[in-house]
Design brief:
Layout lengths: L1 E11 L3 E4 H5 L6 H8 L3 E4 L6 H16 L8 E5 L10 H9 L5 E5 L5 H14 L5 E9 L9 H4 L4 E12 L5 E9 L7 E2 L11 H5 L6 E2 L1 H22 L9 E4 L4 H10 L11 H4 L6 H11 L8 E8 L3 E8 L5
Parallel strand pairs: 4-5, 4-6, 11-12
Antiparallel strand pairs: 1-7, 2-3, 6-7, 8-13, 9-10, 12-13
Helix pairs in contact: 3-4, 8-9
This protein binds oxa(dethia)-CoA (UT7).
Oxa(dethia)-CoA binds next to helix 2, helix 6 and helix 8.
GO molecular function: 3-oxoacyl-[acyl-carrier-protein] synthase activity; beta-ketoacyl-acyl-carrier-protein synthase III activity
Organism: Sulfobacillus acidophilus
Pathway: Lipid metabolism; fatty acid biosynthesis
Length: 332
């Protein structure tokens, strides 16, 4: 039996801070509204010349160093993103070229904010089927490149960032690693969170740009209602697949979209503040990067002791949702 284990983790956020007070100068909003409705106080924004693959690279270098391996030692580079440097080729191909002189498989996984969860599920399947020994799973989004900073309903929510994990094969049942994954999608909600322009349905034109169709559009209320149901379902289904229950949770690391969505899950599962990792106040919603950022922070704060049962759960555009259940520990 082959076990999929974690050997390295890294994360990255750009330096520039955009505070709620900065946003008050840009759109008709205020700090009180943003904090009370979302829990967000500030977010990080990439510079104009900093790309999604640049951020993925910084996080990946840290993850590889943490694992004690070189880029050449990987078999596969997966990148979860919704804001690829270019529509094609993939951000993963660009990242692969920077990490390794040796060619290897590379592709993007696009599944809204659930993308990193999807990509980890892919990596686990590649490793457990013995197709791969070592997979880098990066997550990077530069949402500031598709946010309309004149639209107060979305401008206040999003930030930029990246994370990366190295997953490897180990023989035997083992004591740590990825225990289970759960993925789901319901495309009937496709228009609730969408970048309408620039794809094959509405190719870029003067009209699409004038109409702002290249910006992200979200029906916030509907997505909120979906999220408060989808995240708990993802947690319970992931645990069920691992033969566990919510009583076994040591830590929940939810997608950092909104403090109220996180708190609803915390209450539903009777988890304490200590058991739920939150950093949405400092980074806003960094899409695919939000869970690896929170996981890496919790690790550096010394909160995740080896053997802890950690559930990662996300939801996002698609609509998609899913979870990863991990027995924490670095098996280097
Ligand atoms: O990872 C992607 C997943 N996305 C999400 O998780 C987002 C889920 N949705 C949400 O988090 C919330 O729906 C929002 C934070 C986006 C909005 O919160 P809400 O409590 O659902 O507010 P609302 O959209 O119902 O708007 C309430 C009021 C409206 O004014 P009226 O019509 O009541 O006069 C909005 O125009 O708040 C107004 N409003 C704002 N006011 C000040 C909306 N955005 C702002 C703003 N500042 N930034």
């Amino acid at each position: 039996m082959v076990q999929c284990v974690v050997t390295g983790l890294g994360s990255y956020v750009p330096q520039r801070v955009l505070s709620n007070h900065d946003l008050e100068q840009m759109v008709d909003t205020n700090d009180e509204w943003i904090v009370s409705r979302t829990g967000i106080r500030e977010r990080r924004l990439a510079s104009a010349d900093e790309t999604t693959s640049d951020m993925a690279y910084h996080a990946s270098v840290l993850a590889l160093r943490d694992a004690g391996v070189r880029g050449e030692d990987l078999d596969f580079v997966l990148v979860a993103t919704n804001t690829s440097d270019t529509v094609f080729p993939s951000t993963a191909a660009r990242l692969q070229a920077r990490l390794s002189d040796r060619p290897m498989a590379a592709m993007d996984v696009q599944a809204g904010c659930t993308g990193w969860i999807y990509a980890i599920a892919m990596a686990k399947a590649l490793i457990e089927s013995k197709a791969c020994m070592r997979v880098l799973v990066a997550a990077s989004d530069k949402l500031s490149s598709i946010v309309d900073y004149h639209d107060r309903s979305t401008a206040v929510l999003f930030g930029d960032g990246a994370g990366a994990i190295v997953l490897e094969a180990r023989e035997g049942p083992g004591t740590v690693g990825v225990l289970s994954t759960y993925l789901n999608a319901d495309g009937r909600g496709a228009e609730l969170l969408v970048q309408p322009g620039g794809g094959s349905r509405e190719p870029a034109s003067h009209e699409t740009v004038d109409g702002g169709l290249h910006f992200l559009k979200m029906s916030g209320n509907e997505v909120f209602r979906f999220a408060v149901k989808a995240m708990p379902e993802a947690v319970e289904e992931g645990l069920k697949r691992a033969g566990l229950t919510v009583d076994d949770i040591d830590f929940l690391i939810p997608h950092q979209a909104n403090q109220r969505i996180i708190d609803a899950a915390m209450r539903q599962f009777h988890l304490s503040e200590h058991q739920v990792v939150k950093n949405v106040s400092r980074y806003g919603n960094t899409s695919v990067a939000s869970i690896p950022l929170a996981l890496d922070e919790a690790r550096h704060e010394g909160r995740l002791l080896p053997g802890a049962l950690v559930v990662l759960a996300a939801f996002g555009s698609g609509l998609t949702w899913g979870s990863v259940v991990l027995r924490w520990g670095m098996d280097r």
